[in-house]
Amino acid sequence: MEALRAAVDAPEAELVTEEPKASETPAPAQEQAEEQAPKTRTGRVGIVLVSHSKAVAESVAALAGALLGSVEPAPLAVAGGTPDGGIGTSAELITAAARSVDEGRGVAVLCDMGSAVLTVNALLGEEPSQLPEGARIVDAPFLEGAVAITLTSAIGGDLDAVLAAAEDARGYRKR
């Protein structure tokens, strides 16, 4: 996790932060998005990992980042669990995460299962969509897909290449 954070986060001296006023306490989804918002702009496809568990999403993000080696990471955010820290999915957290990684090249949203998929599809189907323009759901297994899309985005692949990498990950046989 430290390698991923070190690669994504700008040096502390470059960060400008303001303390919120007492009346401006951020909502949980806003806090989570602020924690994971990219500190530098890479011009790459954004990645959002949506899981029913914040710990699972963060762990998968850490593994995918660690496998990049010296490649500069793509913008990556997690939307795990509910705003109160419980198990489930949250449209609010997903929307905040997608907006935090949107750099105008599209956002690939990878879900673990069930209601995460339903929530993202509902967000994409709203008029207007709550997700950034160019956001697409990824059809791939969570771990293998996360590694494939994170690497493909990090090496500069466009949204179509990122989605194709996910398709390849979905078909990868283990025996």
Structural notes for this entry:
This protein has 175 residues and is α/β, with parallel strands linked by helices. 44% of the residues lie in helices and 11% in strands. The chain has helices spanning 2-8, 28-36, 54-66, 91-101, 114-125, 142-154, 159-170, and strands spanning 46-51, 76-80, 107-111, 135-138. Helix 6 (142-154) packs antiparallel against helix 7. It starts with a helix and ends in a 5-residue tail after the last helix.
Summary, kept brief:
With 175 residues, the chain is α/β, with parallel strands linked by helices. It is built from seven helices and four strands.
- Radius of gyration, in Å, reads 15 Å
In the predicted model, the low-confidence regions spanning at least 5 consecutive residues are 1-26
What number is the mean pLDDT?
81
The biggest beta sheet reads: 4 strands, parallel
Strand content: 5-15%
Helix count? 7
Q: What is the rounded distance between the termini?
A: 30 Å
Oligomer: single chain
Order of helices and strands: HHEHEHEHEHH
Amount of helix:
40-55%
Question: Total number of β-strand segments?
Answer: 4
Strand order of the largest sheet: 2-1-3-4
Structural class: alpha/beta
